Every structure is written in C-alpha cells, then in structure tokens.
Fold this sequence. Notes:
Oligomer: single chain
Number of domains: 1
Number of strands: 0
Strand content: under 5%
Amino acid sequence: MSTPEILELIGQMIGIIAVCFSFLTYQLKTKRGILLMLSLATVLFCTHYALLSAPVGLFLNIVGIIRNLCYYHSDKKILSSKAVPVILAAIMGVLGVLTWEGYHSLFFIVGLMLNTLAMGYFGPQNLRKSLLLTCTLIFIYNAFNFSVGGMLNETVAIISALIGIWRYRRGKETA
C-alpha cells in the first residue's frame, strides 16, 4: 500500500470511531454533555477529513467545534446573543468558499450553515426536523468524498431524528 492509501485507510477508521462518539451524544441527558461529546466527535471528524483531503469538511468542522463550545457557554452574556448563530454560519460560508473543492462543497457548506442556525434558534422538535434536510446535504458531500464514517454518521443522525420526531410528536405521550 502506498502512503496516501494508508492515510486514507487510517482516516476511514478514525471516521468510524468518530461515529461511535457521535452516537454517544444521542445517549446523554444534558445539553452541556451532548455538546461536549459532539465536540469530541467533531475533533475526530476533523482528523478524518484531513486524512481524506477534504478541506471543506475539515475547516467547517473546526468552526463546528467553536460553535459547540459557544452554545455550551451560552449562559455567558456575549454568547447568548441571537447574532452568534448568524456570525458562525457566515464564518462557515466564507471558509467554505476559501476551501472550495468543487460544486459538491455546496452540500456541506449549506448543510452545516443551516444546521448551525437551527441549533441556535430551534427547539428540539424543529431541530430534529431540520436534521432531515441538513444531514441529507452533508451525506451527499460525504458520498462525493467517499467518507464512510461521514455517510454512516449522517444516516444514524437521520434515523435518530426520525425516531425523535415520532416519539415526541404533538399530543403523544412517551415513556
């Protein structure tokens, strides 16, 4: 195996490990715990995208870590501003253009920008509904870059969102 092939294989393995950490976020009870675990998974995804030579995925996920930490510390006055999600989404848009890989980059850029806005403004049920769109867009980018972990992660997120939408539908009691 050549060095690029070995790096890609390592990247794919790190992506699978990242999916495991991402899955754990769905099992945590507190918003702060979820955001910390999501940040850890995102650090692994950054490494994954770097090894797959997918700069849009790498740099927008770096902003995703910053986003998660901002939302984690949203009790701080400056980070509780309604402008924070817009600023983070704008940074993602600019970085997406600067790291452009081709038209397939738009799927990741738009998906992560919308996800950032949804995380900042939506309640849980509307956030789950928004994931159906944002995860689909990010899945397409991952398919273009043959990110096995990325595709698996978005599939798990979509299934989890669908389960949550069904469990917490209006007027229905849950266990």
